[in-house]
């Protein structure tokens, strides 16, 4: 169903607009430099005039802004925003992933909404635990990964050693697009393997607050000015040629190889090459499979799915927003869409593009774009919205929780508010809610990927639903999927408990720890204890 004011659009417009878009996320471990890189990308694309305007940390304000008081107090960003960068007739949609070490499911869900990921590594640290977890999710979703080795201006590891680590630990074949001249910490410049080994010497600008000065230098002069560093780089480049470490589109798009770039986000070294790589190599939005597995072409009527819910971003308005990734068709503000889960119409009068805490009213969007729907109380994470004949995308999988707590209303007189609040947080995917007859309705078990999710629950239950909660931590750290046949046996074992996940009716068994799990599996091989997604 469409609003009568909708502008009729041709198929070609949608196809060509989709082709201009690149929708991606940065996956990294905290402190690898994600915020700095985001700033630098926006700076290079001239979206902002001076680095620092995007960052949400410290006294720098901007895109990954801290919406909730709690976030401000902690100086971290829990929410996911989308940043739109226009560059050389392309539109880059950078979906933010929360960067705190204390992981939440939001980070994983963002990867359901992107077409490509930039894996950001600290040159001194290589692959870190959170990078590995996120990479696993990206791999599970078949998302192509571009690698950016950051902080080359600081002492770090050998470039060949880092490539080796990527290949050995995660089985991703690295294909460097550029190569550093000068070791980590003594960074002289970059050789562009995609441009006949053209050399660019880098000159630092004070404070790194503006674009680095990149000076093209020919090989003869480079050999003269860089001396031994140049010779070493040439030897390494010859080695790369010998082992055939060349970019290969097919294996990159299949998630088997990864183009690698070396650089330093803070002084803005090599960031422009990453931008060029994103617009030339990262895939544009393409047909997405619906729940029945049928690919829906980008020029089909409008469709999209909710990958994130966000409440109370603006205290003055007390609203609830749904972030929707557009999969097909053109979106015009005011369209009346259909909510696939309920079959009900959904009016989109109040649609916004979100640029951090700033909101702009959005009139048109195309595949790859992110739209934010205001007052989206009826929507849940994973829900599909469409125009025309019905389509539904597969649900976004729930991830393996590792932290569990029983929730109770502090004031039993406010049980109604308590129940409503827990239901709402469940539908937004803030935590998973598990119930069992044994524990009863009044004491649901909350399950989280990271304990920070519990702080969000506490805060919102008290301030939004006026029903403060008491959370008692449970001594479980592993969750597995089970079935009705295994449940009664598992429930009787010590160190295990079976509950039902409210959102999808799945039976989960919680176990104290991996050791106990192994013992149960050994003693009862007949019982179903299937791993859940990511880290389970
Ligand atoms: P994150 O979002 O991934 O957590 O990392 P963030 O960008 O905040 O960067 C973490 C620290 O690493 C910051 O320093 C940042 O300035 C530094 N950094 C990022 N990229 C580079 C780089 O290419 N070279 C160097 N030398 N440092 C880099 P901080 O002192 O912890 O924070 P801040 O006070 O600068 O915000």
From TrEMBL:
GO terms for biological process: regulation of translational termination. Keywords: Cytoplasm, GTP-binding, Nucleotide-binding, Protein biosynthesis. PANTHER family: PEPTIDE CHAIN RELEASE FACTOR RF3. It comes from the Bacteria. This is Peptide chain release factor 3. Increases the formation of ribosomal termination complexes and stimulates activities of RF-1 and RF-2. It binds guanine nucleotides and has strong preference for UGA stop codons. It may interact directly with the ribosome. The stimulation of RF-1 and RF-2 is significantly reduced by GTP and GDP, but not by GMP. Pfam families: EF-G_D2, GTP_EFTU, RF3_C. GO terms for molecular function: GTP binding; GTPase activity; translation release factor activity, codon nonspecific; translation release factor activity, codon specific. The gene is prfC. SUPFAM superfamilies: EF-G C-terminal domain-like (SSF54980), P-loop containing nucleoside triphosphate hydrolases (SSF52540), Translation proteins (SSF50447). GTP binds at residues 96-100. The keyword Nucleotide-binding applies. It is found in: Cytoplasm. Residues 19-286 form the Tr-type G domain. InterPro entries: EF-G-like_DII, EFG_III/V, G_TR_CS, P-loop_NTPase, PrfC, RF3_C, RF3_dom_3_sf, RF3_GTP-bd.
